[in-house]
Design brief:
Layout: H1 17-41, H2 52-59, H3 62-85, H4 93-120, H5 134-143, H6 147-154, H7 159-162, H8 165-184, H9 195-211, H10 219-224, H11 226-245, H12 250-269, H13 271-276, H14 278-282, H15 284-303, H16 312-319, H17 321-341, H18 349-383, H19 391-397
Helix pairs in contact: 1-3, 1-15, 1-16, 1-17, 1-18, 3-11, 3-15, 3-19, 4-8, 4-18, 6-8, 8-11, 9-11, 11-15, 12-15, 17-18
């Protein structure tokens, strides 16, 4: 039996608390923002008696949260690709695409089926209007990965469709990722494999321009551009390449963890100030946050950091962040409707936030455990996406995912 015919399973990726914490933080900020937008749209002045700084931190950091998620995504996909095929230049196109399809498609297709049904039933807040191209145009945008571009040119889609803009950016990147790995992953200049990292670095350089100059004053383009999102994914990919090739000393790990935590925390706490000063005007505020996220990821990946119990809710949310992201708008709209029916009571605002976040987390976990993860495992087992793996990669896969720290 040849190595490519081996049916030996590759051990599952070991979960990293640092990664799940970042994803949980990302989805938390997205949830807070989407609840906030509903309240402000209904003229509920709940922010009038709260400190402005606190409001900015809690409900206006959704885009920064998505940037964190993009960085995490790039790190995970690149790390898993290296782990599965030993090197980027040996990636299997069929295996990679089946791997992504099994993870993304089951829940996405179910979501689209539900949204189409609600549209045809003329349910309020779920109808895609002719202004944005109608249902057929929205479906085409989802399936061809340009929901972001559709909204840039036609305006915002209903909430459950709008959130798919980030998925379009992410999956467009991964559509070409394995091709770039095969073409450039093994190429060397001056004895070093720098072609693929250089390509990723180009996306990092272009990211701030995608949020500013290339957006041409379009506010949606400033948030939803391909280049703006792909910068974060590329930073995550670069981090995975570094972590896979080097083992850091304890001092370096501690430094990365400390500086990364400070940068991420400062970026989120002082996001409004950064947005209004030169960092925001140049689009570099997202880049700085991405770099800090990379430092935190590198440190926690190599140290095997374990989250304290107080952060356990965020970690749990991070473990099913994809499911929460795709389903949370159903919860937000449901509780928002109840809030409006109750007469928009100010005392009901905290309960709206808490209930929507709690139920969104529970729904996401239920969907993950009962549908998307079983479907993911089933599709991978049926497609045997991992069969085209070299013997070297199989040997490497037996190692744990966390690189030990050199004493």
């Amino acid at each position: 039996m040849t190595p490519s015919d081996s049916k030996s399973p590759i051990p599952a990726w070991k979960r990293l608390d640092g990664i799940d914490l970042l994803r949980g933080l990302s989805i938390f900020f997205v949830l807070m923002n989407h609840i906030n937008i509903r309240l402000l749209g209904a003229d509920v002045p709940y922010t009038d008696y709260l400190p402005a700084q606190l409001i900015h931190v809690l409900v206006w950091n959704a885009q920064l949260g998505v940037q964190i998620f993009f960085v995490v995504s790039g790190f995970l996909i690149t790390s898993i690709t290296i782990r599965r095929w030993c090197s980027l230049s040996q990636v299997s196109l069929r295996g990679f695409y089946l791997f992504r399809f099994a993870r993304i498609a089951p829940l996405l297709f179910l979501l689209l089926a539900v949204l189409c049904s609600l549209h045809f039933a003329h349910v309020h807040r779920y109808v895609v209007t002719a202004k944005t191209g109608g249902l057929g145009r929205a479906l085409l945008a989802v399936l061809t990965l340009h929901v972001n571009e559709l909204q840039i040119h036609r305006g915002y889609l209903p909430g459950n469709w709008d959130i798919l803009w980030s998925l379009s950016i992410e999956e467009m990147f991964y559509l070409f990722f394995p091709l770039a790995c095969l073409l450039f992953g093994g190429k060397r200049l001056f004895g070093r494999s720098i072609v693929f990292p250089a390509l990723l670095f180009v996306f990092v350089i272009l990211g701030p321009f995608g949020r500013t100059l290339f957006a041409h004053g379009n506010e949606i383009a400033e948030d939803y551009s391909y280049l703006g999102g792909m910068e974060g994914i590329s930073l995550g990919c670069l981090t995975a390449l570094v972590v896979s090739r080097r083992r850091f000393s304890r001092r370096v790990v501690w430094t990365l963890a400390t500086v990364g935590t400070v940068i991420v925390s400062a970026s989120l706490i002082f996001s409004w100030q950064a947005y209004r000063n030169w960092l925001g005007k140049t689009g570099l505020n997202f880049t700085v946050l991405g770099i800090g996220t990379c430092m935190f990821i590198a440190a926690t990946a190599q140290s095997g950091w374990k989250s304290p119990r107080v952060l356990a809710p965020l970690v749990r949310m991070g473990r099913c962040s994809y499911e929460i992201y795709l389903t949370h708008m159903f919860v937000v709209f449901t509780f928002f409707g109840l809030f409006l029916d109750a007469g928009k009571p100010m005392r009901g605002v905290p309960w709206f936030f808490v209930s929507a976040i709690l139920v969104s987390g529970l729904l996401g976990a239920a969907v993950a455990n009962c549908y998307s993860e079983p479907a993911n495992r089933y599709l991978r087992s049926k497609s045997r996406a991992g069969t085209n793996v070299s013997s070297t990669a199989l040997a490497a896969a037996k190692e744990i995912a966390v690189t030990p720290v050199r004493p």
